[in-house]
Design a protein that fits this description.
With about 240 residues, this protein is α+β, with helices and mostly antiparallel strands. It has two domains: about 110 residues, DNA Polymerase III, subunit A, domain 2 (DNA Polymerase III, Chain A, domain 2, Roll), CATH 3.10.150.10; about 110 residues, Proliferating Cell Nuclear Antigen (Box). A nine-stranded antiparallel beta sheet has the order 6-2-3-4-18-17-16-10-14. A hairpin with a 2-residue loop joins β11 and β12.
């Protein structure tokens, strides 16, 4: 009874993305694949992650709902070597992670009790959708970090605007609709978010991949992208304008 990935680098990146905000949480293993939902301790970020059963080279595991220390699991996954095959197995009290390549290594992580509070993912009706190249968004946020700790995001007239303001100066970046930026909105949308949280949310997105931002004025934003064959969605709380 185990699951197997011949190329597990995207799983390692996924665990890194999750552990940035969540130190411990519950993974659900079922006939559809693996899913994970949690809210960070500050209740600023909700994470909704999933990977389909079909993404695995082997998937033979009993339906389970298990608590894991994500920080420790991330340490294990950071030790994966290029071309390593990963096998993951569960028993009643531990998760076994086995890497096979130039070396054969086995790690065992005790399962933990994590509150089984059901996470309700918001079903917000957003007013604007932006699909943007990850590299462009990351560079824009680096610019914003020169001056502020927060960013104001605007969508209007087929334009996506990022603004930052601080005692040292101000920034305004305008991304017009083009191949790498698609803006869909019926009215102007303005909302403010933590720059540090947003930067960490998108850190595992591949440079030339697409990130989808869904906005509503003065409301939480939904950020979605793929990590390899898995999908990750974040809901980021807004700040007062």
């Amino acid at each position: 009874m185990a699951i197997e990935l011949k190329k597990a680098d995207f799983w390692a990146k996924s665990i890194n993305a999750l552990s940035t905000f969540i130190s411990e949480g519950n993974f659900r293993f079922n006939d559809s694949g693996i899913s994970f939902k949690a809210i960070d301790p500050s209740q600023i970020v909700l994470v909704d992650y999933s990977i389909a059963k079909s993404s695995f080279d082997k998937y033979s595991i009993e339906p389970s709902y298990v608590g894991v220390d994500l920080v420790e699991l991330n340490k294990i996954m950071s030790r994966i070597l290029q071309n390593d095959k990963m096998t993951l197995d569960l028993t009643d009290n531990e998760m076994s992670v086995h890497f096979t390549g130039e070396l054969s290594r086995s790690f065992k992580l005790p399962l933990i009790d994590v509150s089984e509070q059901e996470i309700n993912v918001p079903s917000t009706k957003f007013d604007a959708t932006i699909e943007i190249n990850a590299r462009i968004l990351k560079e824009s946020l680096k610019d914003a970090a020169l001056f502020g700790s927060s960013v104001v995001l605007k969508a209007k007239d087929n334009q996506f605007i990022i603004e930052a303001r601080g005692s040292a100066g101000t920034l305004k970046t305008v991304a017009k609709e083009a191949k790498n930026v698609i803006v869909k909105t019926n009215s102007e949308v303005v909302s403010k978010y933590s720059l540090n949280f947003l930067t960490n949310i998108i850190k595992e997105a591949e440079p030339e991949s697409k990130i989808k931002l869904e906005l509503k004025g003065d409301a939480p934003m939904k950020i979605s992208y793929s990590i390899g064959q898995s999908k990750i969605n974040f809901h980021l709380a807004h700040m007062i304008l």
